[in-house]
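Newbie here. four chains, one complex. Structure please?
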Amino acid sequence: MTTTVLNDHEKMKTFEELESAVRSYSRGWPAVFERAKGYKIWDTEGNEYIDFFAGAGALNYGHNDETMQEKMIEYIRHDGIIHSLDMGTTTRGAFLESFRDVILTPRNLDYKVMFPGPTGTNSVESALKIARKVTGRDTVISFTNAFHGMTIGSLSVTGNSFKRHGAGVPLHHSVSMPFDDYMEGHDTIAYLERFLEDSGSGVALPAAIILETVQGEGGINAAGMDWLKKVANLCKRWDILLIVDDVQAGCGRTGTFFSFEPAEIEPDIVCLSKSIGGIGLPMAITLIKPEYDQWGPGEHNGTFRGNNLAFLAAQEALTHWETDEFSEEIQEKGKFLRDTINRLIKTYPGLDAQARGRGLMQGIAMGKPELADEICAEAFQRGLIVETSGPKDEVVKFLPPLNIDKEGLEKGLNILEDSIKTVLGQ
Amino acid sequence: MTTTVLNDHEKMKTFEELESAVRSYSRGWPAVFERAKGYKIWDTEGNEYIDFFAGAGALNYGHNDETMQEKMIEYIRHDGIIHSLDMGTTTRGAFLESFRDVILTPRNLDYKVMFPGPTGTNSVESALKIARKVTGRDTVISFTNAFHGMTIGSLSVTGNSFKRHGAGVPLHHSVSMPFDDYMEGHDTIAYLERFLEDSGSGVALPAAIILETVQGEGGINAAGMDWLKKVANLCKRWDILLIVDDVQAGCGRTGTFFSFEPAEIEPDIVCLSKSIGGIGLPMAITLIKPEYDQWGPGEHNGTFRGNNLAFLAAQEALTHWETDEFSEEIQEKGKFLRDTINRLIKTYPGLDAQARGRGLMQGIAMGKPELADEICAEAFQRGLIVETSGPKDEVVKFLPPLNIDKEGLEKGLNILEDSIKTVLGQ
Amino acid sequence: MTTTVLNDHEKMKTFEELESAVRSYSRGWPAVFERAKGYKIWDTEGNEYIDFFAGAGALNYGHNDETMQEKMIEYIRHDGIIHSLDMGTTTRGAFLESFRDVILTPRNLDYKVMFPGPTGTNSVESALKIARKVTGRDTVISFTNAFHGMTIGSLSVTGNSFKRHGAGVPLHHSVSMPFDDYMEGHDTIAYLERFLEDSGSGVALPAAIILETVQGEGGINAAGMDWLKKVANLCKRWDILLIVDDVQAGCGRTGTFFSFEPAEIEPDIVCLSKSIGGIGLPMAITLIKPEYDQWGPGEHNGTFRGNNLAFLAAQEALTHWETDEFSEEIQEKGKFLRDTINRLIKTYPGLDAQARGRGLMQGIAMGKPELADEICAEAFQRGLIVETSGPKDEVVKFLPPLNIDKEGLEKGLNILEDSIKTVLGQ
Amino acid sequence: MTTTVLNDHEKMKTFEELESAVRSYSRGWPAVFERAKGYKIWDTEGNEYIDFFAGAGALNYGHNDETMQEKMIEYIRHDGIIHSLDMGTTTRGAFLESFRDVILTPRNLDYKVMFPGPTGTNSVESALKIARKVTGRDTVISFTNAFHGMTIGSLSVTGNSFKRHGAGVPLHHSVSMPFDDYMEGHDTIAYLERFLEDSGSGVALPAAIILETVQGEGGINAAGMDWLKKVANLCKRWDILLIVDDVQAGCGRTGTFFSFEPAEIEPDIVCLSKSIGGIGLPMAITLIKPEYDQWGPGEHNGTFRGNNLAFLAAQEALTHWETDEFSEEIQEKGKFLRDTINRLIKTYPGLDAQARGRGLMQGIAMGKPELADEICAEAFQRGLIVETSGPKDEVVKFLPPLNIDKEGLEKGLNILEDSIKTVLGQ
């Protein structure tokens, strides 16, 4: 890596002076980025970084996929429609058909596709609304350390106290229950069931249960397949809608297109965003079982729900799922990642760490939370972009592009190991 | 216009079968659109439409501006960063500097720029949060027929009962007060003031008052400049934050960059989205007076808050505001539109209509609400895209691209007049 | 009046040391009361006071009515049941029958009688619940300067900001609308109607409208009969339940048993408490039109809803209403009170005062709010108990026992006039 | 027992025709009661019943205590003040002093005494308000199967779904946690602690934790002393106010004046009502640690907070607590009751029952819920008044007057055993 000439303050002056104090990533990674390809990203000073962050899971297909780029350029050149709300367009139609043919039909799934505003939180808000409308109930059960978004509806089912407090108002109509493995020796399903079946529990029969199969922001907590099945059964038994927020864990992140596939469950509603747009353009969809698609026209809407460049890239992205190859590669890389994590934990007992997650959504939970931040800072200096998650930011979280090659993975993990050594003073 | 061969059902089959029942525009305008340029848009059958809708105000600069297109293609070709959350990027920096130099400094305005998720409702949610945090109060006063978005926070300050009911839960922490001219002979400012100063009124001192200077979805109700000034004074007197939601009326729609400029007020917070992205790509910013920019890092965030293609087009769009020319042209065209509206109202007394709005955000409110829908449907058949708004969908709403030429305006208005004649049976 | 030997602090030591800071009346009237009869009350030092406060309207029949006393003693002597929840008892049965025969039947009213917990706020809570259950709606409209009680449900429809703030949480599911004559030149009915009929107003169709015909705590604001009729019609037109909170204005206070009788309206629900128990014992009833009495058994309950000593005194109190005499006397005394008030206002222009109220529920609203407190304090020194009300405590409020004789009234009003003179320095 | 001549419908006609459908006890016990003494109660037909219900715990000192009766008669005869809001009166002062001398000082407790409206729910509402005010937080944690009252504030911390649903609106600002022994093998303290210490748990730091040491309506669930201590420690550690709702379990019901004495904890706030008034007259007090008594004057109030006849009886009732004798007798009778319950459970395995509770607040939880109702109905026919509790009404609940003699207890329990035999068909 080349030596930087400017100090951080000089480099980041524009952002420090003009942008709101709410900015966060530009604080931890004080650089001005300019160009990116695949799993690599470069700043204005020519420094190259390996990207184990991938747009917080929005760049599963890496930066600037060649085919997507070409299709976008071609589309722009021919004055393709950029913005269309929910008007019929050729790209919207083509995406819908590909999604049916490549994703839904082969998996025997039947969902209506809703296009909310192009953000994950918007998809979650639409899911909560339709669940409440369909059931006539108001409560939604979410789980400890859940993250579903920052608008008031989604925030009410999010666990993080700093983020909840940011609402500025008490958050209502939600109940937080313990996620899988929340407490050693406590069966969290039994607990949930007890609250549901006891008419004196103080918890009303909910409209829905919403969950992430792997909690991204909450610390890369992966629910067991058995736990997911039990939640699904419980939903069926009590006539509760099951919403899977697959915004971060979906689109192949854990090895299958939907993260819940290995659990063999069929959620009533699925939220997708982040990587659904293929190249990182804003897009979101909400999948709703046909019997629950009881919206009135325009009952939920949003100006940017017709982002056609995103539809175009999204359709191209779906071609990855025409065969099983992509899925198998992810799982293989996931295994390699897990092995390396286990080795690191063993080699560096000073971390007092635990392995977390599955597929290419894994992390190392540090015994001392502050180590995670220090390791990420050190890694950035060495050319690796990787961030923390968890309630105490105690988890180093790995979200490399799914199509990263073995060389890239190894190179990134080597930087990580060097960073660990430095932080531990070895 | 060429005759269509397919019937509506055949054309729209993909959308009817695969998309959620929530879709709305594709019902009223049963066509599959493919290409667009300036104020024109074409469907797959080659039909050409004049666009008086402009992406619900997201396409103030028309479809597919040449310079924006070229910059985007160039950017993509060079692997420019597409997605970056709130990391520092060259395009984000360049936009921030242009926004300061072209918009803020010449208007003597001082705001910190926040990038929330790239939708209007996300900007509004961020505005409500920071207002509540800064004041420590929970209530926000909004106005009758306000529209601020569809996520729970924004929806709570939105007036429309169909949309509110869609929340599926009671909406809290907001009080609805009468907008300017809500009731003939009633001074709505006096009314608002009485509620604020009477400690027995049942209305708590609010964190903020949020308003649109011209209510788009609510029926193109334009507040008077005097009324806006009074609201601003009242906010100062009572130490209430004034939030102007300029998502639809901003970015030049009413003739000045910010819609509130003629009122000579300085809101504490301004929400911008829709046309801020220039070419119709999702983008939103929240402007916050420096003294109120009390966010903690990441206290509000969102995956798509770094949509760099949008920043690129946004920066290009700002060049329109380097001189007064663009603004003057809008006002001139606005005057022409108003004159034509007045003539139509006079010529067709059967409409029992009223003129509404200002700049290039105008409408005709029909005495019989159903006429508005019929006229729009008729206009679509004749090649004009125009939609309704208002609590009873009683207003035909004109939002042509701001750079439409006189010929386009006239052509569109001629189609409108023909449609009126047909509907009235003349 | 005899000179007191102890200073206030010595007298009130027990209360100051042992009782919570929430105590209020014992601050303004620093005396320890011991005995009372009719409109007179004596403290431990033998000082006699004329009572123009009457237990905040709970002692309409004066202190210690002889017949009630005797019946109570007889009842206690014979081991009559004191406490019975809602079990059948002879006294409960007898009260129910008297209430039907003396109150309901002669007025052509048909209500089911509910016994909630024995407080006004409990009656209001029960009224709000049943209205929401029956309509399936959550919003309740109340009026500026309304007072309906201090528990969270009742507080949410109460206007006073100090009291609302005491909730410690935001209050929901209610909308405050302007009471009769709230703003000069503003037709508050037209305003309410506009909000109801405009589907974009931001105010949902409510379950109920709740009102006091004369607002006691809110400043003795008496609604006009025409205004009440219009509210009642509006409720019918929109299928909204009308709740009259007659806790303070009912039981003859304004000259008729129910305060709404002169308006010739028939509320769907009526709340009664305070003087319904005759001698000042805790009791409350909620009257519900049979078609809305859709409670499940025990769906609202309370331990002290069977206060049989109160039922006994209540039944005795109803005998006052067997003929029109009592009602006529109240109205006559009310006229005398009004004439005196008008004379005082005229004679003492320094008060800059307005007359308020009707029947024996009247007040003088002072131009300078602080005068009211000073006059009441002065009056107490001279042997008259009278308190203030209104959002700024600006109203001197007269609530003498309804059976006070002319001599008592005059004596009290003379003390008041002397107090006015002293305060004005005349 | 004598044979009744009237059938139930004839007897209860007045109540069926005139009273609201909300009435409950008069359905299960179709009789009109007239007279009562000690632990006996008689209906109009001369039938005698043993009272194991004691006004739902409001008649701990039995019906019509001679001394209380005499004091009341004397008081009434001398025109003692009946109703006084929170004015100073001799009876209020005397009660305050006795309460300090007999209850607080000997127990080394220091509380300010607040007089809210004279109902348990009113005391709870005042407790919740002051806890929220003092801490500036809004959430209150309550427990599964808690019952705290029927007004909206108290209902929000009550567990029963039928009662909660009766609110007609969603209930906010509360979180329900598992009570002691809620689930076998689950440590509910560890659970609560985990939610508090995890900043991602979705449960905010609460203003207060509210609990009953023995849940009356919830099924006579008695918390262990160790569990109570742990909750109290947890409150201290997290700076949370501990509210003990001793409305039903207090005033000696469990063997000590306060139910929490054996746990050696010192709640920050204590709610008392029911038996505090001695003879069954409405009364309630809220005890607040002096440092938290931060009320403004009148910030919570209520018309009937000065029920002087109740104060008089309350003071007399306190004399029971001047020595330890009364307490020891209760504990002895409690032991006898527990032994009998255990014997019954053993003798009648068909009940598949469990013993519940402590002191003279005990119950038998039936394996088949419907047995409880049948046994109570049978017992009523045989002259024993006893009711059910629990989420499925599965618990036969014993609340005899505390001063019942051994003969009465045995007689009642014999009737119960006969009823069990009949129901089980033995």
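Moderator note: The mean pLDDT of chain B is 97. DSSP finds 15 helices and 18 strands in chain B. Thread marked as resolved.
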